[in-house]
Amino acid sequence: MMFRHKGTNMRWTFAAFMGHFILAFASLEETTQSGASGWTGKLLVVPMDGSHWTGVKAVAEEMGRRGHQVLVVIPEVSVRLGPGKHFTTRTFPVPYGQEELDELQARNAEASKRLPLLERIPTRISNMKKFVKLQTTTAESLLFNQELVDYLRKQNFDAVLTSPAVPTGAILAYNLSLPAVYMLRGLPCRLDSTATACPDPPSYVPRFFTKSTDRMSFGERVVNVLVSCLEPVLCKLSYWTVENMASRFLQRDVSLADILRTGAIWLMSGALWLMRYDFTLEFPKPLMPNMVLIGGINCEVRNPLTKEVEEFVEGSGDHGIVVFTLGSLIASIPKEKAEVFFKAFSMIPQRVLWRYTGEIPENVPKNVKLMKWLPQNDLLGHPKARAFITHGGTHGIYEGICNGVPMVMLPLFGDQSDNVHRVASRGVGVILDIHEITAESLVDALNTVITNSSYKEKMKKLSAIHNDRPMQPLDLAVYWTEFVMRHKGADHLRPAAHDLNWFQYHSLDVIGFLLCAVLIVTLAMLKCCALCWRKCCRKAQKRKAE
Amino acid sequence: MMFRHKGTNMRWTFAAFMGHFILAFASLEETTQSGASGWTGKLLVVPMDGSHWTGVKAVAEEMGRRGHQVLVVIPEVSVRLGPGKHFTTRTFPVPYGQEELDELQARNAEASKRLPLLERIPTRISNMKKFVKLQTTTAESLLFNQELVDYLRKQNFDAVLTSPAVPTGAILAYNLSLPAVYMLRGLPCRLDSTATACPDPPSYVPRFFTKSTDRMSFGERVVNVLVSCLEPVLCKLSYWTVENMASRFLQRDVSLADILRTGAIWLMSGALWLMRYDFTLEFPKPLMPNMVLIGGINCEVRNPLTKEVEEFVEGSGDHGIVVFTLGSLIASIPKEKAEVFFKAFSMIPQRVLWRYTGEIPENVPKNVKLMKWLPQNDLLGHPKARAFITHGGTHGIYEGICNGVPMVMLPLFGDQSDNVHRVASRGVGVILDIHEITAESLVDALNTVITNSSYKEKMKKLSAIHNDRPMQPLDLAVYWTEFVMRHKGADHLRPAAHDLNWFQYHSLDVIGFLLCAVLIVTLAMLKCCALCWRKCCRKAQKRKAE
Questions:
Q1: pTM for the full model?
Q2: Contact A199 B286 (CB under 8 A)
Q3: Which keywords appear in this protein's UniProt record, sorted alphabetically (chains A, B) (predicted)?
Q4: 3-state per-residue secondary structure call for B450-490
């Protein structure tokens, strides 16, 4: 089988490790072991396509820059995955072509169309099935590529960095007995909570897709409890194909939660979880010691704007600009929907920069610049940014918060509806329904977030809190990835909860035992009392009889 | 009323703020607000006497050094509290003298004596009562000192830093409506978990004084569940006097948990909790977003040894030294007990440095140096340190771990017995019973930890993990204290769990409602079935009758 080496053709860089750890070790031996200087390792990266790539790529690049040997394994065909400056890529063949991916993107764009319920549900299920099938095919193409897996095994990596939302990397880490570092926002049906043994009481931790905040009415709490009761079933359904594939690959029956929590068959090392959120967006909830919060990791990478874009932005005067994207999976929207946006933009004084790859109509307003790719974060960081129209993906929302730009949000699918409700609950953004949207409602929403000072002020405070952290999220992610590589896992952060079944975890056996004990003692005491009573009665009867 | 100003006589230092935050703020405005440079505030510190002072003092000093105005309020008489280089102290009069404190220390030393059970229990209770009375008297002397409280109110502090184990500072913060920063290892009866709404399942989070690890047998789990059921009662009993005093001072009925979780009457800001542990000592368990781990905060402060001590240490040759202290509250031990130690030390080749203020016998072995005060951390950091004999206080244990020195542990009271069991479970120390100790058993224990390489190796690994952190604990503590000052609290980290009662928190109302709903639906369905059945039966009977 042929492998094409993208990027620097397996050029492992052995440059000196220049990381800036703040370590104070006593002896030289410890220093070397713990990587304060000079220590480098080997990292395997198994990324997921789409927006997940943004954060993983940033860490892979930084790890490479610091002198580690970083190998990124990606399919030959993908939407966003690709080579980097500081890491090596290795591709594997997949039995589909670019056209399938383009079709998937086109299908995603359909989400903005309003369909009748009877049509929408089968369409969504069919889309979901196609998506899962594509992911599973990709995973199989890697895992059952014996030559590639053997090659990876021989490399003796120190750890695997991966997105567990599609758990190819996690399954591979488990098989190669390597400690895993996961980067994620969260997993469907709270699989992340199950795999980390992290408590999340349904009384104040809202479940995905419920659109609730952490302050729920009684009715909302009922829904939340019901959803959390259904989650194990949903999990089984969602990951049925993947668990099947994992069992075939590993040649043993395994649950995905076991794979995720363990990190490796023999290690029992406990993986490290880099969570792409913080509590400016998320509602405060319990955490586990092996969770590291890196919300806003994508906000640091900044580049100057091109001259052309800079001129367009500067030309907006005091009115400033509006930035508009619908995420990496949707590049174009249906023509009739696009017309609504064009109409709205012709009615506002701001200039608009729009990531748009669809058919360009003749009557594009002069204040609108259409671009095939948008330097989103750099534009939001520009002092002239006034509002951000977004679909509500986590990356975009954190870029909005980090740069302090109020948002108009048009959620499409996945966790986006929850994200936008969290943002709206902070008073820093307005939600619009993409199916109901009109030019007037969009103009209204834009005017609200731009001219109502409450949005800007609240966003300023939120942004200040988000940015006020002792260490940048990228440095933190890199630090803990290196930690796992140095110490072959993070065993000391693995809770003993993993060794208990759910019955023991909730102390149900102990409670049962104690209830039985109380019951037996009570019964024994009642029996004693009854005996005493009978004896007394008999004596009294005898006395009477005498 | 007279106040004596210890230290620099109310000299507020306005030196430029030279903190080294790794912040990358977008605009100058945000930078100023968030204190990246130049920003200074006013911090009130209400410390607790004894070993708690170590960590609080380190933060107060560092805050002062960074240009903040730090005022430490302490009683006129104390065991360890005193002035510092970078903060101002203000003393308040107390109705007891140095002799009462000396008596308390002498009583603590008695803990090393073996007493019969019938004598031990009343002695312990009497000691505890004296301790609580002293603490309450000190708290009352501050809180009911109207002049002092008025003065503090006028200062417009940004936050209060305090040890909540004696909640004087917390009550004062609540009264002054200031956000609070707490520094603690843990509170009796898990009051810290209650006040932070932090889940700690009794199935794998061992309770204090049970001596269990996180991997418990069924019997140990039964004990753990029973202890956690008793905790609310224990809490009520332990803090009854203090809650009473707080209610009198605040002129309203308050629970201590409410005071601790709120931080201030009107703010509802949620306090920040600096926890003096990490997971090299503690067993992994859930955390809350407003908990910051600063275990080992006292390990950073290092000074060179005096010439005399250095010569003594260097003279130990390859055998090295043993460091021996029983903590700040016990300076001397009974003569007959001391003789056991002297005898043991005469039998080992190492040199011993012993913090000892008791009567010095004639036959002190040549390899023993008695010192009234011991630079414990500097000695443990010396390459010649071979073993550490300790009572198992948290500070000492972290100094042992940080410097990688195996331990022989003699727990006396408080959380020490739990601490030493945690250390022993890591295979880096040996526990001895101070009541049963003989010269032979001590020599055996010392030889084990010094010559059995397993102890040294495991300690080396544990030390490497403990020291491998992205930021030093002192910097982290200072950072988050400043965060609370900058943002007037840490509202975004306050879980909504605080707004629920325990019934709602555990979703018992929802579960009850759902059970009722299921019951009603089932009954209704049964009723329907019964009706249908009856109708069918009647029809059949009619047919038969026809």
A1: 0.88
A2: yes
A3: Endoplasmic reticulum, Glycoprotein, Glycosyltransferase, Membrane, Signal, Transferase, Transmembrane, Transmembrane helix
A4: HHCHHHHHHHHHHHHHHHCCCCCHHHHHHHHHHHHHHHCCC
Classified by CATH at the fold level, domain A38-97+139-299+472-499 comes out as: Rossmann fold (3.40.50)
Q: How many residues does chain A have?
A: 546
What span, in angstroms and rounded, lies between the C-alpha atoms of A105 and A96? Answer: 15
H and E: helices and strands count for chain B: 20, 13
What does the alpha-carbon distance between residue B217 and residue B234 come to, in Å, rounded to a whole number?
24
**Within chain A, which residues score under 70 in pLDDT?**
1-37, 108-114, 262-270, 328-332, 545-546
Percentage helix, strand, coil, to 5, in chain A? 50, 10, 40
Give the distance from residue B289's alpha carbon to the nearest chain A alpha carbon, in angstroms.
6
What pLDDT digit, counting tens, does each position of B414-460 carry? 788 889 999 999 999 999 998 889 999 999 999 999 999 999 999 99
Under CATH, what is the fold of the domain B307-467? Rossmann fold (3.40.50)
Q: pLDDT per residue over B382-398, tens digit each? A: 999 999 999 998 989 99
pLDDT 10s digits, B80-96: 899 999 999 999 999 99
DSSP annotation string for A107-158: HHHHTTS---HHHHHHHHHHHHHHHHHHHHHHHHHHHT-HHHHHHHHHT--S
The residue written with tokens 């951000």 in the block is A388
Contact between A221 and A203 (Cβ < 8 Å): yes
Element (H, E) at B351: strand B351-355
Q: Is the ipTM of this complex over 0.85?
A: yes
Position A101 scores a pLDDT of 85
DSSP state of B497: G
Q: What is the pLDDT of residue B537?
A: 81
DSSP code, position B377? H
d(CA A401, CA A16): 36
Q: In the prediction, which pLDDT does B456 show?
A: 94
> At A122, which amino acid appears?
P
- Beta carbons of B497 and A204 less than 8 Å apart: yes
Mark B276-293 as b/e (b = at least 16 C-beta within 10 Å).
bbbbbbbbbbbbbbbbbb
Does B28-93+131-195+256-299+472-498 match B307-467 in CATH topology? yes
Which residues contact residue B491 at a Cβ distance below 8 angstroms, ignoring those fewer than 6 apart?
Answer: B268, B269, B270
Can you tell me the distance from the alpha carbon of A479 to that of B125, in angstroms, rounded to the nearest whole number? Answer: 49
Which residues of chain B make contact with A465, given a CB cutoff of 8 A? 487, 492
Cβ neighbour number for residue A137 with a 10 Å cutoff: 15
The pair of structure tokens assigned to A160 is 């695997």
Of B169, B186, B176, B187, residue with least CA distance to B47: B169
Q: Which of B474, B510, B518 to mutate to test the interface with A (most CBs of A within 10 A)?
A: B510
Residue ranges per structural domain of chain A: 38-97+139-299+472-499, 307-467, 505-545
Q: What is the CATH number of domain B28-93+131-195+256-299+472-498?
A: 3.40.50.2000
Please state, in angstroms and rounded to a whole number, the distance separating the CA atoms of residues A75 and A78: 6
Cβ atoms of B192 and B198 closer than 8 Å: yes
d(CA B294, CA B292): 6
Handedness of CA B237, B242, B246, B248 (dihedral sign): positive
CA atoms lying within 13 Å on the CB side of residue B336 = 8
**What are the chain B neighbours of A290 within 8 Å (beta carbons)?**
284
- Cβ B291 vs Cβ B273: under 8 Å: yes
- Looking at beta carbons, which residues of chain A come within 8 Å of B217? none
Q: Choosing among B213, B275, B465, B503, which should be mutated to test the A contact, i.e. which has the most A CBs within 10 A?
A: B465
B85 CB neighbour count, 10 Å cutoff: 9
Residues of A in contact with B226 (CB under 8 A): 514
